[in-house]
């Protein structure tokens, strides 16, 4: 591992690896228990994840959460057995013999054999040497199942093999595991709180976005309030970018296949791209899944001199990716989205300054939302160099350069081997939300590949042609994913500057309706986003509705307020702020809006 800024980040990364080992082992305990309880099942596959683990089974029996106590009891018995996890390397013939009756394992065996890779299995072995389970697996695992401190099964769902609806529907069981019961209890609290904050639930309750079967899965429709939040986010990022000399462009949502063949995306991601069919042309075209190839053509449209650089292009145009139906999830995984994309074309001697500025811009945005964060240095998978384009020597230099950038900016980071883009390593920002969950948002990449593949050039001070360096940068990433994270981070209670409605006026009775209308009119003239609740409900119900709508401020307007010309202010969360003049209240809200207070 590369040098870190602080030992706690090394420990954090090692701790994460230990947790993945534990969960991977718990996944083996699960399928061993299932095999004991349902002898006729066929094991498919299942990994450890950042949240726990899951496993897919081909079962004749229907398994529900009501069956979990029996499964957990058998898992606990296996853990108490103190079985060892023993790794074996075997030949293809033996692998085929062991898994001959299982079509799912045989598919993996054929695939591994086709790649010419070694086969490894893990045997779960009792202290007396008896093998109670063996599964095709690369590991790693704990030495013994007894090291699993606490576990719990969470849910059951249907899952198509390989996520393809053309394949058989399997039974997927989700669970989680930790080293201690205390950690499990904390996670279960977090999980319960996450359910309350689920952006899909809040999005519907707050009328922010929806999905329609007629429009298509993974294609979000934004209601006025949701569209406002989305627009406010992109406007915020654009205001930060514009102040640093970034220029917004707009590019088509379709392009010829030739563009993506040149960039390399065609060979790498063709299966994840939507094909576009013309009634009048036989040209192969696609909906664009990313902006960078088209931005190269804006650069190429004019001759460029070293004096023209850096050229900073930003783009919020819509993008499309053909995600598998089983992997779509609210705004977190969609088929249509936009990114706060930026591509900076610069000289090599300008890279450090441009990246430092981009990092500071990102810090400003993250601080505004109250996110703590660190960076993942996403590098090549050294065992699979065929996945990447470009000169390995350049990759070595840029990966080392990325480390220097992190350390120069005093940024906590950890390694992410195998997480690089196919054309460049990445500096990926991982934000921590209010529940302690981590989300990858921003990214920065130093790219030498694209300028060479598109033959982008500029004339240097000696009159020679040189390739620029292309920096890829996003701050929030996709607006859709950012909205998901923020809805759950704030539990729908957006700060004043992001709230579609900042103030709701609540007349106590019909007698104060005229005064309430006057208040609303004056606040709107001051630029505030205000609504009037003119329903004939009781004041208590109006307050409850306003709280449910997550409006930051309520104005209680009774006869006393009408006579004094003041407003009685109640803040979200049942905080009574007392009476104040309308001008003082407006000044307070305007200040919070302008300062983007968290």
UniProtKB/TrEMBL annotation:
Q: What is its EC number?
A: 6.1.1.3
Q: Which GO terms describe its molecular function?
A: ATP binding; metal ion binding; threonine-tRNA ligase activity; tRNA binding
Keywords recorded for this protein, A-Z: Aminoacyl-tRNA synthetase, ATP-binding, Cytoplasm, Ligase, Metal-binding, Nucleotide-binding, Protein biosynthesis, RNA-binding, tRNA-binding, Zinc
Swiss-Prot/TrEMBL catalytic activity: tRNA(Thr) + L-threonine + ATP = L-threonyl-tRNA(Thr) + AMP + diphosphate + H(+)
Q: Tell me if Disulfide bond is a UniProt keyword of this record.
A: no
User: Pfam families under this entry?
Assistant: HGTP_anticodon, tRNA-synt_2b, tRNA_SAD
| Protein name per its UniProtKB record | Threonine--tRNA ligase
Species for this entry: Candidatus Collierbacteria bacterium GW2011_GWA2_46_26
Protein's gene: thrS
């Amino acid at each position: 591992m590369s040098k870190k800024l602080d030992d706690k980040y090394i420990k954090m990364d090692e701790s994460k690896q230990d947790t993945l080992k534990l969960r991977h082992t718990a996944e083996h305990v699960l399928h061993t228990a299932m095999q004991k309880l349902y002898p006729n099942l066929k094991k498919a596959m299942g990994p450890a994840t950042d949240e726990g683990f899951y496993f897919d089974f081909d079962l004749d029996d229907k398994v529900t959460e009501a069956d979990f106590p029996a499964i957990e009891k058998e898992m606990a018995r296996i853990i108490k057995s103190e079985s060892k996890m023993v790794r074996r390397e075997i030949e293809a013939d033996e692998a085929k013999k062991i898994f001959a009756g299982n079509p799912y394992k045989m598919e993996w065996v054929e695939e591994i054999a086709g790649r010419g890779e070694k086969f490894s299995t893990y045997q779960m072995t009792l202290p007396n040497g008896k093998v109670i389970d063996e599964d095709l697996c690369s590991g790693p695992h704990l030495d013994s199942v007894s090291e699993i401190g606490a576990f719990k099964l969470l849910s059951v769902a249907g899952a198509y093999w390989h996520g393809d609806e053309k394949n058989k529907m399997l039974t997927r069981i989700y669970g989680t595991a930790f080293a201690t019961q205390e950690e499990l209890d904390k996670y279960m609290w977090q999980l319960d709180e996450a359910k309350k904050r689920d952006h899909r639930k809040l999005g519907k309750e707050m009328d922010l976005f929806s999905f329609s079967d007629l429009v298509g899965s993974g294609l979000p429709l934004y209601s006025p309030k949701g569209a406002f939040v989305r627009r406010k986010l992109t406007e915020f990022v654009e205001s930060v970018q514009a102040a640093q000399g970034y220029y917004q462009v707009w590019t088509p949502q379709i392009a010829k296949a030739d563009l993506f063949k040149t960039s390399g995306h065609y060979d790498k991601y063709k299966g994840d791209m939507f094909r576009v069919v013309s009634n009048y042309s036989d040209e192969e075209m696609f909906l664009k899944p990313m902006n960078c190839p088209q931005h190269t053509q804006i650069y190429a449209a004019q001759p460029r001199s070293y004096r023209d650089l850096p050229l900073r292009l930003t783009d919020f145009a819509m993008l499309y990716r053909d995600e598998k139906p089983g992997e779509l999830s609210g705004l977190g995984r969609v088929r249509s989205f936009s990114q706060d994309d930026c591509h900076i074309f610069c000289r090599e001697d300008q890279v450090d300054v441009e990246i430092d500025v981009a990092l500071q811009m990102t810090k400003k945005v993250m601080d505004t939302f109250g996110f703590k964060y660190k960076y993942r240095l996403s590098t090549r998978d050294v065992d699979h160099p065929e996945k990447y384009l470009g000169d390995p020597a350049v990759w070595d230099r840029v990966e080392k350069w990325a480390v220097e950038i992190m350390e120069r900016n005093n940024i906590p980071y950890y390694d992410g081997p195998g997480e690089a883009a196919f054309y460049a390593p990445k500096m990926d920002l991982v934000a921590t939300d209010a529940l302690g969950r981590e989300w990858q948002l921003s990214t920065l990449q130093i790219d030498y590949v694209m300028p060479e593949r598109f033959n982008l050039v500029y004339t240097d001070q000696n009159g020679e042609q040189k390739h620029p360096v292309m920096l890829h940068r996003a701050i929030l990433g996709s607006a859709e994913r950012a909205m998901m994270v923020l809805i759950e981070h704030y539990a729908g209670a957006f700060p004043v500057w992001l709230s579609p409605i900042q103030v709701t006026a609540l007349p106590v009775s019909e007698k104060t309706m005229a005064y309430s209308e006057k208040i609303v009119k004056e606040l709107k003239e001051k630029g505030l986003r205000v609504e009037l609740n003119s329903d004939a409900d009781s004041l208590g119900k109006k307050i409850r509705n306003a709280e449910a709508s997550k409006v930051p401020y309520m104005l209680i307007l009774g006869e006393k307020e009408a006579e004094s010309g003041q407003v009685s202010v109640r803040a979200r969360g049942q905080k009574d702020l007392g009476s104040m003049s309308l001008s003082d209240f407006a000044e307070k809200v305007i200040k919070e809006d302008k300062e983007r207070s968290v």
